[in-house]
Fold this sequence. Notes:
- With 136 residues, this protein is an alpha+beta fold.
- It contains one helix and seven strands.
- It has one helix at residues 5-26, and strands spanning 40-49, 57-62, 74-88, 91-94, 105-110, 115-117, 120-132.
- A five-stranded mixed barrel has the order 1-2-3-7-5.
- Strand 3 (74-88) and strand 4 form a beta hairpin.
- The termini are far apart.
- The mean pLDDT is 82.
Amino acid sequence: MTYPHGACMTRRLLLLAALAFVIAADKADPEPAKLPRADTRGTVTDVQKTDSFAEFAWFHVEAKKGPDTKHGSARLTVGAATRFYRWKGGKKVEASFEDLAKGCKVQVLFAGEAKVVDTLTHASAIEVLILESPKK
């Protein structure tokens, strides 16, 4: 049995459409947005507020230097110019110092040069991006 030319073409188009649908469905999960650059990335192990005029708080990040970071573990001071964000859906969302807690996974940009004392980096944080909060 032979099909008219139009019926054969319709079947081919349906087959191509089904194939395109399968390929599109395979890529349903978009690739995660790439994190912005960071001076250090790791886990917060301590957070302290102080009464000092020069700094009002500091925190410690336990980290290993990675291929896309400049430093490993660091003691970071926080000042009025420090900005806090959360990483949600591949975008930065405003946060605050109060959102920073022991166990948070963070990445930090330094304000200016860092100093290394006894293998620990000391720096001022200009931006803190909270990647993940600890489970409660």
